[in-house]
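Archive entry. Fields below.
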Amino acid sequence: MALFPQGLTQIDKRCANAGERAVLHQLKRCLSDDYLVWHDVPIGPKARQPDFVVFSPRRGLLILEVKHWAWGSLRAYNRDSVELATARGLVTVAHPLLQARGYALELNEVLERDPALIQDAPPFRGKSRVPYGWGCVLSNVRRKQVEGTDFAEVFPDFKTLLRDDLSEELDPYEFEKRLWGMYAGWTPQALTLPQRDRVRWHLFPEVRVQQASLFEAQEQTAPTLALPDLMQVMDLQQEQVARTLGEGHRVIHGPAGSGKTMILIFRAQQLAAAAASERPILVLCFNRILAQRIEGSLRQRGVDERVQVRTFHGWCQDMVRTYQLDVPQHLAGDAYFAALAETVERAVARGLVPGGQYLALLIDEAHDFEDAWLRVAARMVDPATNALLVLYDDAQSIYQKKRRRFNFASVGIQAQGRTSILKLNYRNTAEVLALAMHCAQGLLADRPATDDQMQAVQPSSAGRRGPLPVLLQAPNVRAEAELVAERIAQALADGRAPDEVAVLFRTRQRMVLVAAALQRRGIAVQSMATPGFRAFVWKRPSVRLMTLHSSKGLEFPLVVIAGLDALPWKGEPLDEELRLLYVGMTRATHELVLSAAGTSPMVQRVHNSLEAVALQFAEQEAHV
Ligand SMILES: Nc1ncnc2c1ncn2[C@@H]1O[C@H](COP(=O)(O)OP(=O)(O)OP(=O)(O)O)[C@@H](O)[C@H]1O
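PREDICTED_STRUCTURE:
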């Protein structure tokens, strides 16, 4: 069966009439697995919305317009327009074939501008490799009704499907052949997977993977007209998950780097565009830097302030201000935050803070939320939409003081039958992911679970390759700081920008020496250990020194994890510290460097894992 990235049930619900539904059914019944079918989605730069887009790597792109006109209502027709008798009187509309042809030619023009999709051999040198075609379906007109009329002169048989072509009795192969007959061009070679993805990139700007940049969040860069060499789009599973989110509660489990935040941003953008109501949409996460990243990405995509992005505690502070709640003022630090959350929880339970305030609520990194926070969040969604999206990865839960046996129902989230699982990690190279997984063995074991429980999902690598991670070992902290600074200086000399580098630490204390060693080499630094530090200024180019905890949700081309010997920190359980290390390692998009002063069981563990991973890749190369 063809793949319907918007979900069959959802398309069925959105079909405008019985005709579209019959076409959907026939496409589902007759087309084989390699076809992709979209219904009524905006395509191309002008966001046209044809009824159906059918795409196959063997056959190319086909645009179908469906009209459920009764034969008796067609009063007149010519090649440009059709005159219809309707309840509103006579109405003249564009000929559906003209409409479909216009969309198809427009798309072909876009594809022909992409050198990677151009044929290089005669007879079609310079033309797009993607065959294209168009047709119309008059789903309420039978062949015998048009016999003996001039219908076929205006609706050529090879471009027009009638009700007879939608019959259950029709041989699927015959139906497929009818579709092939609608194509204007033909290339003997099937498209490769990267070419197929390039076509999706051109067709659907909303599924393009845009590298989420903290820096662009502050400084808008001018849009570039050149096409990127590497066109990244959501994979088909991501697209399917993203497009089928719909209303009601939804849960997505996915390991580090599998595109959860990307899907959240897609969804927030879609909700904002579709919402007729003025009610705000709320995005919640735990840490401030991630909130900044998400907000930046949304604003970059033109989503306005109606989508609010807050950390859970930031949102609690909003509630305290708005509803004049009392939080004990003598508290500070963790005690203050706990009291803040409890105050808001109580106020929501008593109705002092009204529930249902948000049209939709999206929670990133929900594994860092306490049960009570999730309960509060679930109550803040408008019951009319119930639109709550929860993104979860148990392996990355680093703020839970005690491991919980989690159950979504107990916090008011209906996850049954509403859960999707992503498995592919796109962020890291195969080498970085292999090391992160090797070190975190045990935490990541696939755990079968019902929809209602949290699931542990093992990531699989999307296959991008890079250098093996390295471990720098020094006799003491001073020497370690020098080694780290030297390594970063070398990376900058080789062309890395300071913004592309983050150094992660278990605690702030260890940042001081590394910051000084970098500054001595003339490298600009922003460090969380600087007295009075409040937030990073993302538009100031510099290497960033941050805690492992605050690196959550972020990514950098070069990540250094310094002070490995400080893990586990002061009697913290080993498993929890391994989780933290896993989060840190999976921040690296290209290169990962680890460093330690002296040795410790953790340093030894990483050392052993590195050897095992190096061997694994050497064996793989030998096989190739
Ligand atoms: N299909 C894809 N093709 C290429 N890159 C992708 C794809 N999906 C996601 N990415 C990239 O992978 C990176 C990780 O995505 P994202 O931050 O959304 O993951 P995540 O699941 O939220 O990760 P984490 O839980 O570790 O924060 C991003 O740079 C994103 O652009």
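CURATOR_NOTE: Residues 8-206 form one domain.
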